[in-house]
Design a protein that fits this description.
Keywords: Oxidoreductase. Residues 7-175 form the Alcohol dehydrogenase iron-type/glycerol dehydrogenase GldA domain. Residues 186-395 form the Fe-containing alcohol dehydrogenase-like C-terminal domain. By secondary structure, this protein is of the alpha/beta class. It has two domains: 9-178, Rossmann fold, CATH 3.40.50.1970; 183-397, Dehydroquinate synthase-like - alpha domain (Dehydroquinate synthase-like, alpha domain). The protein is built from 16 helices and eight strands. The chain has a six-stranded parallel sheet with strand order 1-8-5-4-2-3, sandwiched between helices. The chain has a two-stranded antiparallel sheet with strand order 6-7. Strand 6 (147-152) and strand 7 (157-162) form a beta hairpin. The two termini are 34 Å apart.
């Protein structure tokens, strides 16, 4: 038996944020990031609509990118003090992911972070509050997923928390928020969404319910991401829908080792973070080549290539065409091919912020952590320690995959 879980209600289209005025409750805590939602006036709108709904509102602001365990615990403490019956998280993936984890510790103060690392191990939620998510970026789709990524900076590891309990009750996918994204963020989040859709389509847990969502998302992203990056707001609006469709697919089909590698390299090096969307964009072509040794996966990659009208008459030609197209997209979006050209902020550079010596010193440990990541189990080909080390080396130096 398989399971397919989505939010109870999903409101989409311009102005859909106004649906907050129809929520039923007494208190709402609003979890947001570093200030863009306030600067662009969306935070005031959210507060206003919630007050229209008759609720007392409190803010928890300044959730950092790649939110930490410590931020989650501070937010949970604020919730225990305020006792909201609605948690409203708005912004990029970071504040929404953080709020999902806060939710668990609000309702179950005795639970530890270590308790939640095991996939699908959360206690039953909604004993105190329901959850509404409002994304401002077009990539993570955390508004419709059973996932949250939280970083333990002491260990230098990003942990993907997974449980259907943390799928939001309500998602509001309002493209007005996404229209404020700068180009670089548009690029990184867009390729994150593309990775979600492709990994979901070849996942060992894909099914008839996830496949059409993944394929349509891939097509929309392929057609609209570059235009969105260049400032076409109609394309930007379509991308906001596309990333949500990709999220619906991967939340139920799960992901693969592109995400395993991105999670475990993201915070591992002293030179700085490898931004999640940029990491996925760099690693995806290499992982496709690795996974294509599996015949079923190769066939599904070929189906993707045909669906977006790439050239090729054989499976191998179509897989190679898909890899070439993804690399072309990276170049057009100023995303590096490899870590050795990963500059500050995730753009192409002559000198990487990730030191080559440190990368190689940590190679074995990072490979071990990547294999142990929650996303590895649904990848079509499970790498050995040696193969994961070779894969990571390939994504550092942009080497060919022949194993």
């Amino acid at each position: 038996m398989a399971r397919f879980t989505l939010p109870r209600d999903l409101y989409h289209g311009k102005g859909s944020i106004a649906e907050l005025a129809n929520l039923k409750g007494k208190k709402a805590i609003v979890v947001v990031g570093g200030g863009s939602m306030k600067r662009f006036g969306f935070l005031d709108k959210v507060e206003g609509y919630l007050k229209q709904a008759g609720m007392e509102v409190r803010l928890f602001e300044n959730v950092e990118p790649d939110p930490s365990v410590e931020t989650v615990m501070r937010g949970a403490a604020a919730m225990r003090e305020f006792e909201p019956d609605w948690i409203v998280a708005m912004g990029g993936g970071s504040p929404i992911d953080a709020a999902k984890a806060m939710w668990a510790f609000y309702e179950y103060p005795e639970v530890t972070f270590e308790d939640l690392i095991t996939p699908f191990s959360f206690p039953t939620l909604r004993t105190k509050a329901k959850f509404c998510a409002i994304p401002s970026t077009s990539g993570t789709a955390t508004e419709v997923t059973a996932f949250a990524v939280i970083t333990d900076y002491a260990k230098g590891i990003k942990y993907p928390l997974a449980d259907f309990n943390i799928t939001p009750d309500i998602a509001i996918v309002d493209p007005d928020l996404a229209e404020k994204m700068p180009p670089k963020l548009t690029a990184h989040t867009g390729m994150d969404a593309m990775t979600h859709a492709i990994e979901a389509y070849v996942s060992t847990l894909h099914c008839n319910y996830t496949d059409p969502l993944a394929l349509h998302a891939i097509k929309l992203i392929h057609e609209n991401l570059k235009k969105s990056y260049n400032g076409d707001m109609a394309a930007r609006d379509t991308m906001h829908d596309a990333q949500c469709l990709a999220g619906m697919a991967f939340s139920n089909a799960l992901l693969g080792i592109v995400h395993s590698m991105a999670h475990k390299t993201g915070a591992a090096y002293s030179g700085g973070h490898i931004i999640h969307g940029a990491a996925n964009a760099m690693y995806l072509p290499k992982v496709i080549k690795f996974n294509a040794r599996n015949a079923e996966a190769a066939g599904r990659y070929a189906e993707i290539a045909r669906f977006i009208d790439l050239p090729g008459s054989t499976t191998e030609e179509l897989v190679d065409a898909l890899i070439a197209e993804l690399r072309k997209m990276n170049k057009e979006l100023n995303i590096p091919y490899a870590i050795q050209n990963y500059g500050e902020g995730g753009v192409i550079a002559e000198q990487s912020i990730i030191d080559e010596k440190e990368f190689n010193e940590k190679l074995s440990e990072v490979a071990k952590n990547a294999i142990a990541d929650a996303c590895t189990g649904s990848n079509p080909r499970i790498p050995t320690q040696e193969e994961m080390e070779k894969l990571l080396t390939a994504v550092y130096y942009d080497k060919e995959i022949d194993f």
